[in-house]
């Protein structure tokens, strides 16, 4: 049985993260990220659920997750996974998109999977350059060419649409969670804010967001904890500052969603902190 490897680089030139998971068997539960994820499968098969649709993904497939796209995946037939991805914050994607298209907007990937994409090789080359900490010129050029092709091939402009009354209530709940994630939050609190009963709240929230309120809260906490760890904050302090009752609970949830321990994630950035 081969040894699993989990490697992460933060590229300070491009301001993006590059993850590489090699030989892993981990199941990732339903969750979301605040940033874009663009990845590809090097080997292995997975069953992917994204926004309540099911996919079987394998070698050579590209994956796209927009910010807040809920998704989950698990291995098939005990096959390990070799996977690489780039994590791109919305502000970086907006900046690059504007430079490429001349328009100030956030692109929206229309589907989470592109089978046998022609851009897989270009993404693989860029990812390896980041892993090798290559000089900026060719790496940046490759990054812009990649994003240009992906925008043209797989995205549409996000447009404002009118939302219903319940969706407004769900948006208010999300804003409340994002403002009060450091505090204890109960389902009763959310029901009171939304003026919905608890069952209606759970049903509507899950339908609109594709994720339960509790999972949304914990994911917000993990995303905020990542920001603290990037600044060199110790895992225990990050846990306490983001509403987790203890470090054990925090570490378990962080590993479940991110695929690394809080300490491993913090170490990516420690050497660059002055």
Automatic annotation (TrEMBL):
Q: Name one Pfam family in it.
A: AraC_binding
Organism in which the protein naturally occurs: Paenibacillus sedimenti
Gene3D superfamilies, alphabetized: Homeodomain-like, Jelly Rolls
- Record flagged with keyword DNA-binding: yes
Domain called HTH araC/xylS-type: residue spans: 171-268
| Keywords for the protein's UniProt record, in alphabetical order | DNA-binding, Transcription, Transcription regulation
Indicate yes or no for the key word DNA-binding: yes
The name this protein carries in UniProt is: AraC family transcriptional regulator
Q: Care to name a GO molecular-function term for this sequence? A: DNA-binding transcription factor activity
Q: What InterPro entries does the entry give?
A: AraC-bd (IPR003313), AraC_XylS_family_regulators (IPR050204), Homeodomain-like_sf (IPR009057), HTH-like (IPR037923), HTH_AraC (IPR018060), RmlC-like_jellyroll (IPR014710)
Specify the domain of life of the species encoding this protein: Bacteria
């Amino acid at each position: 049985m081969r040894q699993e490897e989990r490697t992460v680089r933060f590229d300070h030139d491009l301001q993006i993260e590059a993850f590489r998971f090699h030989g892993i068997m981990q199941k990732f539960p339903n969750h979301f990220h605040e940033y874009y994820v663009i990845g590809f499968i090097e080997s292995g098969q997975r069953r992917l659920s994204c926004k309540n649709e099911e996919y079987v993904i394998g070698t050579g497939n590209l994956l796209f997750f927009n910010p807040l796209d809920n998704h989950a995946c698990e291995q098939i037939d005990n096959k390990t996974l070799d996977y690489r991805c780039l994590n791109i914050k919305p502000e970086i994607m907006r900046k690059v998109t504007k430079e490429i298209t001349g328009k100030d907007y956030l692109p929206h990937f229309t589907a989470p999977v592109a089978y046998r994409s022609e851009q897989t090789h270009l993404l693989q080359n860029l990812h390896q350059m980041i892993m090798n900490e290559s000089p900026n010129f060719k790496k940046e050029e490759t990054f812009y060419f990649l994003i240009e092709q992906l925008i043209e091939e797989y995205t549409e402009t996000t447009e404002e649409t009118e939302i219903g009354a319940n969706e407004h209530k769900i948006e208010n709940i999300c804003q409340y969670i994002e403002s009060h994630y450091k505090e204890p939050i109960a389902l009763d609190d959310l029901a009171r804010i939304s003026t919905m009963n608890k069952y209606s709240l759970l049903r509507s929230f899950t339908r609109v967001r594709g994720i339960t309120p509790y999972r949304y809260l914990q994911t917000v906490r993990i995303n905020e904890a990542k920001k603290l760890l990037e600044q060199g904050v110790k895992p225990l302090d990050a846990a306490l500052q983001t509403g987790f009752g203890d470090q054990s609970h925090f570490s378990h949830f962080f590993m479940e969603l991110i695929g690394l321990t809080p300490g491993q994630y913090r170490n990516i950035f420690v050497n660059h902190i002055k």
